[in-house]
Amino acid sequence: xxxxxxxxxNPDNDIWGLPQEFKGIxxxxxxxxETKYKKLFYKLFCQPKSYIAxxxxxxxxxxxxxxxxxxxxxxxLLDFLYHVTQINKPDLKEYSNSDAIxxxxxxxxxxxxxxxxxxxFISIIxxxxxxxxxxxxxxxxxxxxxxxxxxxxxxNPELEKKLEFMQRNMIDMDLKDEIFSFCALTGLSEVEAGExxxxxxxxxxxxxxxxxxxxxxxxxxxxxxxTAKNKKDELFKHYLRHIEKSGRYDAIFVNKDKFLLDSxxxxxxxxxxxxx
Length: 276
Hints:
- Strand 4 and strand 5 (127-129) form a beta hairpin.
- 46% of the residues lie in helices and 8% in strands.
- It has helices at residues 3-8, 11-16, 35-45, 55-59, 62-70, 74-85, 131-144, 149-153, 157-166, 175-186, 190-194, 198-222, 256-263; strands at 20-22, 25-27, 101-107, 118-124, 127-129.
- The protein is mainly alpha-helical.
- It has a 3-stranded antiparallel β-sheet. A two-stranded antiparallel sheet has the order 1-2.
- The chain has 13 helices and 5 strands.
């Protein structure tokens, strides 16, 4: 999260499903039951561009990247913004510049590259959002819906293949499986589960699984029936603790300090040295 977003973002709002405010406009989180807008969220805001080895794309704003590289349907973004701002959407099938939310474009004669010869703006009830504003808005919308700019932009095609291979035998759950599993764990009804935001659903699900695993397996660890390679480690940590955000490829990366400890290379008597 960049410094500008960090200063205005209120993480406590995510706990209660409240909106984040940016430039005087409130942006509401997406609920689990809002499947159309959940799909649009992933389609519009979760497209990584940092990995693309193209100078023009790397310099391009995310708004231009969406419109001219990903080639999204422009009206889909407007539809999404009407939904998350809870501003009444016009009944007409086609949007116009007189609508509450619309695009604006301005020529930049001094621009050198093709995409630098014009600027795109989004007007939301007469408040203008520049391309840089939209980059910040993207970070806000990602964060309040349970992910982050760091997670999305850490995408690496080669690492993604390795991650997919590692997870090939893991259980593949669809929305139905997730909802019924969530309800079984929490005791909430399907209707109640559907009212949870993406952030609430993800955070609660993670904590519930941690709670169940701790209750099932901690007694086995305490009794010595299961042990960690390094006996100082805890296999099953207590659920009443802070959970750090996980990185996109944490499952395939090895923590250097833990590796040295487990392997014995950290022993001062070891003949093998690992360069920094």
